[in-house]
């Protein structure tokens, strides 16, 4: 049993904070992040799409060309796209909102395919949580993307705060081009059992966010929270997990030093699991 040894970092973690936020698209520094990631040893950067959409280079022809050039130059890929846009603009059961959401998500899928990405991720947590609503409309919404997903090399990942059984039930109603993004820290914060989660839908997990959080609390540096990162990754190795792993850790005083330390932490775990 083994687990992928390639892993990346969430965009913005290699740049100064923007307005004190833990995560945001680094409009002034995104190009620099490719060479910094390369220097540390990361294989990929998970791209962020948020408002304003018109300023995101992923959604412009010129920007796509620049991204492609940086990928070719540094060999640092963009495999996953985090559509944080839908955190502030949840996909709700409204004809107008669904139409607008479909157009935006379609544009992200097509753009992602052009730069060689594998997947776009939709967060259903915090402001966009679907825990306490009837989300059956989402089944029709996401299944409507089957044709475009078949024509591209892209998939859609959902990240939710649903309990393991509920999330499994939702995924079973969706076509196989729609999978799960699994956030280790968020699950620990919610008090979910990672073994139960992996048993329920491990075969649908396409990307894993490495994060540590306190139960019911905030994100903290690796090893200081309630997430069992080693055991979770080891459980995934029992499935021969070979898809995405992305560090989405807590910020530190020095962004580069923090990212370097987090890289070494995860790299050591993967080497132990893979008996390297």
- Shape, please? globular
Q: Walk across the major sheet and give the strand order.
A: 1-2-3-4-5-6-7-10
Strand content: 15-25%
**Helical coverage, percent range:** 40-55%
Number of DSSP strand runs: 10
Summing up helix and strand content along with how strands pair, one would put the structural category as alpha/beta
Following the backbone from N to C, one meets helices and strands in this order, namely EHEHEHHEHHEHEHHEEEHEH
Number of separate structural domains:
1
Largest sheet: 8 strands, parallel, barrel
Task: Using the coordinates shown, work out and report the CATH topology.
Answer: TIM Barrel
Mean pLDDT: 97
Low-confidence spans: pLDDT under 50, at least 5 residues?
none
Name the CATH class: Alpha Beta
Based on the structure given, which CATH architecture is correct?
A: Alpha-Beta Barrel
Number of helices: 11
Task: Give the N-to-C terminal Cα separation.
Answer: 13 Å
CATH level-four homologous superfamily name = Divalent-metal-dependent TIM barrel enzymes
How large, in whole angstroms, is the Cα Rg?
A: 18 Å
């Amino acid at each position: 049993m083994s687990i992928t040894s390639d892993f990346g970092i969430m965009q913005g973690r290699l740049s100064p904070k923007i307005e004190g936020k833990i995560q945001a698209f680094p409009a002034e520094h995104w190009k620099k992040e490719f060479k910094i990631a390369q220097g540390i040893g990361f294989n990929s950067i998970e791209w962020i799409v948020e408002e304003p959409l018109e300023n995101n280079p992923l959604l412009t022809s010129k920007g796509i060309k620049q991204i492609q050039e940086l990928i070719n130059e540094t060999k640092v890929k963009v495999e996953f796209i985090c559509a944080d846009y839908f955190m502030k603009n949840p996909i709700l059961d409204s004809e107008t909102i669904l139409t607008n959401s479909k157009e935006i998500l379609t544009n992200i899928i097509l753009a992602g395919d052009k730069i060689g990405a594998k997947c776009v991720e939709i967060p259903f947590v915090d402001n966009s949580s679907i825990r306490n609503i009837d989300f059956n409309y989402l089944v029709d919404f996401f299944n409507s993307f089957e044709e475009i997903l078949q024509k591209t090399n892209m998939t859609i990942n959902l990240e939710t705060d649903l309990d393991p059984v509920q999330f499994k039930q939702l995924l079973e109603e969706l076509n196989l081009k729609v999978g799960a993004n699994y956030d280790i820290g968020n699950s620990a914060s919610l008090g979910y059992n990672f073994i139960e989660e992996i048993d329920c839908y491990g075969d649908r997990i396409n990307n894993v966010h490495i994060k540590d959080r306190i139960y019911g609390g905030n994100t903290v540096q690796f090893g200081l929270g309630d997430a069992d990162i080693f055991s979770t990754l080891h459980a995934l190795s029992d499935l021969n997990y070979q898809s995405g792993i992305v560090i989405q850790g807590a910020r530190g005083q020095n962004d580069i030093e923090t990212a370097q330390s987090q890289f070494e932490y995860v790299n050591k775990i993967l080497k132990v699991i893979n008996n390297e």
